[in-house]
Amino acid sequence: MPMSVKLSDALINKARQYGGVYHRSIPKQIEYWSTIGKIAEENPDLPYSFIKDILIAQQEVADGQVTPYEFG
Fold first, then answer.
1. Is residue 69 in some structural domain?
2. Fewest CB atoms less than 10 Å from the CB: which of 29, 31, 39, 51?
3. What percent helix, strand, coil does the chain show, rounded to 5?
4. Dihedral angle computed from the Cα positions of residues 18, 23, 26 and 27, in that order, rounded to the nearest 10 degrees
5. Do the domain assignments include residue 20?
6. Cα distance between residue 66 and residue 31, in whole Å
7. What pLDDT tens digit does each residue of the chain (72 aa) get?
8. Which domain holds residue 15?
């Protein structure tokens, strides 16, 4: 459910900067940071790079860009 929230100008400006680099809109950049932050809070022993790799792998599965592993 969409909801309007007030955010600081500093956060909006940082989201604009990072979003520009990664080709994300300001809301999508903030949503990405929120996702990373939530996962990091729930799994404090995981480094950022591992969290990012997990998210990339999940998207690859969702996009059907995986092949089954053959044992033996």
1. no
2. 31
3. 65, 0, 35
4. -120
5. yes
6. 26
7. 888 999 999 999 999 999 999 999 999 999 999 999 999 999 999 999 999 999 999 999 999 998 889 998
8. 9-62
